[in-house]
Design brief:
The complex is a heterodimer of chains A (110) and B (167).
Chain A (H helix, E strand, L loop, with lengths): L1 H21 L8 E4 L3 H4 L9 E8 L2 E7 L4 E3 L9 E3 L2 H13 L9
Antiparallel strand pairs in A: 1-2, 1-5, 2-3, 3-4
Chain B lengths: L1 H31 L9 H5 L3 E2 L5 E2 L8 E7 L2 E6 L8 H7 L5 H14 L3 E2 L5 E8 L2 E8 L2 E7 L4 H10 L1
Helix pairs in contact in B: 4-5
The chains are: A alpha+beta (110), B alpha+beta (167).
């Protein structure tokens, strides 16, 4: 009986992996925050929790317009959907206002 | 007593035969399985990058904008730059999306761009998606700087690059 259960578990995991690789979690214009794993965070100059809006949502190629000091910042690359988390529009607006009123210099200054 | 011994012998012989048969089947399956496909390291090597082993790589800032290869498409030649190893470029494509070799990768990227109209977005990038086989949808993103990323859907990535190249 045990081997059958193992096979079923393996099949479930494979289905989960397949879905993870093919299902888009986001829609265009959705508000998101930057929540990458540490190894990614340390290599990019985007502050953790920074807000943005999804421009296009392909699984491993989410394009995001990040809130900048003035206007928006278009990073030249694209992001894995697992590096982003959805936030509400109200949260997006609140964070954007805080960024623009605060002392952060903006992406252009980095 | 003799009957019991004979019965035991028969059972043990049957078990031994079944075991041998199972082992022979496993050996046959292993022999018939395709060999594991290796991942390329050309971009990491050419760009002087360091593969961090976590699907990202560190690329020296001074080489990130250098052209690793060029894809000749119906839209003209498109550079694949070294990139930053995380969100864009050849090193990122190779490390994160497990390119088996760049011959297949260039052929595949060209095919996806030439055969699909592409969807431009307001950030200046264009997304191309082509279903090359059931369970194998290829995505390519192109930006002002050239090819940003390219990848197949699902798992078994190395073989899907090859499948895309020869389709």
């Amino acid at each position: 009986m045990a081997p059958v259960l193992s096979l079923l578990t393996l099949a479930d995991e494979e289905v989960a992996v397949e879905e993870r690789h093919t299902s888009e979690r986001f829609v265009v214009d959705q508000a998101v925050e930057w929540t990458p794993p540490p190894e990614v965070a340390e290599q990019l100059e985007i502050p953790i929790g920074h807000p943005g809006r999804v421009i296009s949502p392909a699984v491993y190629a989410v394009d995001v317009a990040w809130v900048d000091k003035v206007g928006e910042y278009a990073h030249e690359g694209v992001f894995d959907q697992d590096w982003l988390s959805p936030i509400s529009d109200d949260e997006y607006e609140a964070r954007a206002a805080k960024i623009r009123d605060g002392s952060w210099a903006g992406f252009a200054r980095h | 007593m003799l009957k019991v011994r004979a019965g035991c012998h028969r059972v043990m012989t049957t078990i031994a035969r079944l075991t041998l048969s199972a082992l022979a089947t496993i050996a046959l399956l292993l022999a018939a399985s395709p060999p594991a496909v290796a991942k390329a390291t050309d971009a990491v090597d050419a760009c002087g990058a360091t593969d961090r082993g976590d699907l990202t790589a560190t690329v020296p800032p001074e080489v990130q904008s250098k052209i690793f290869m060029t894809v000749t498409t119906s839209h003209g030649p498109l550079p694949v730059r070294c990139g930053n190893g995380v969100t864009t470029g050849a090193v990122h494509i190779e490390v994160k999306h497990r390119v088996p070799n760049w011959g297949d990768a260039l052929s595949c990227i060209k095919k996806v761009i030439d055969r699909t109209p592409g969807q431009p977005n307001k950030n200046g990038k264009t997304n191309y998606a082509l279903a090359v086989a059931p369970g194998n949808v290829f995505t390519v993103v192109r930006g002002d700087i050239g090819i940003i990323t390219a990848y197949p859907s699902g798992g078994d990535l190395e073989n899907k690059w090859r499948q895309c190249s020869v389709s």
